[in-house]
Amino acid sequence: MHDLISTALEHMRSRHQWISYLYPYSIPFYRKKGWEIMSDHLTFDVRDIQLPKQQNLPGHVERMDIDAEDVIRTYDRFALLNHGAMIRNQLNWDEYWRWENEEERTAAVFYDEDDEPQGFLLYWIANEVFHIKEMVYITQEARIALWNFVSAHFSMVEHVRGNIYKNEPLHFLLDDGDIKQTIKPYFMARIVDVEQFLRAYPFAEVGQPFHLIVSDPMAPWNVGTFGVSWDANGQVRWSVMPIPVCQCGWTSKR
Q1: Whole-angstrom Cα distance, residue 50 to residue 175?
Q2: 188 neighbors 37 (Cβ within 8 angstroms)
Q3: What is the pTM of this model?
């Protein structure tokens, strides 16, 4: 496993992929290999009597297939605007539904007054529970409209259960915020090439100089001291000073 991960990092580096994401089967294992938790998975349970009251706003919601073009296009817009969101290709979408029955899933897409899709939810209803696999919205109007759609099923369900993103303050947005929520670690990430990551990072025009002392048992090209500073013109400057192996915390037996 050590050799496979090392080879994978070398391959990603050769392809200029400066960041690696993964969904871990073992958090302790991947922590030892340099990955760290970067996002959480949250679920919620809202009772029917806690659903928000419907609000009037322009636009409309349409039901359609889960792989409809407007669903994919809206998600792509969302992913580019939100931290930690995966940019999904066709393989990612196939994996997204691999362990679930697609025939029972429906997409509800919100269109604004200009008939542009601004959000969607993927859902199904079973045993008086409205299940939300994913709710995505670009605007606050889309969020309200999608919850209007959910609330319209008040007479059919007793609970609404689903997944939300870490920065979604659902309990704050509901009149009755006394809902059940769970949180657990989700994706992990690591920097593949520290120097190239720093060179690609969009630093502010002016900042305080700093340096990082890095040891990396999986990627020896990351071992060193990396300095970042700004010149008189506000241009970012980098410096790299390799650290001798004996200073990396490694030990050897003779």
Answers
A1: 7
A2: yes
A3: 0.79
**Backbone conformation region of residue 194, classed left if phi is above 0, alpha if psi is from -120 to 50, else beta:** alpha
| pLDDT score recorded for residue 146 | 96
pLDDT per position as a tens digit, 98-143: 766 656 789 999 999 999 999 999 999 999 999 999 999 999 999 9
Q: Amino acid identity of 92?
A: N
- Is residue 35 within 8 A of residue 216, CB to CB? The reply is no
**End-to-end alpha-carbon separation of the chain, Å?**
25
β 159-164/129-137 pair status: parallel
Cα-based distances in Å from 10 to 15, 102, 123, 156, 197 = 9, 37, 40, 53, 15
pLDDT for 12: 97
Distance, CA of 225 to CA of 2 (rounded, Å): 24
Which residues does the chain have with pLDDT short of 50?
246-254
Pairwise CA distance, residues 242 & 34, whole Å: 19
If DSSP codes are grouped into helix, strand and coil, which group holds residue 118?
A: strand
Residue 9 in tokens? 């990092």
Other beta carbons within 10 Å of 117: 22
**Cβ atoms of residues 55 and 174 within 8 Å:** no
SS3 24: coil
Return the exposure string of 134-160: e unless at least 16 CB atoms fall within 10 Å of the residue's CB, then b: bbbbbeebbbbbbbbbbbeeeeebebb
Determine the pLDDT at residue 254.
34
pLDDT at residue 56 in the model: 92
Contact 143, 161 (CB under 8 A): no
Q: What angle do CA 84, 133, 98 make, to 5 degrees?
A: 90
Which pLDDT value is given to residue 247?
A: 46
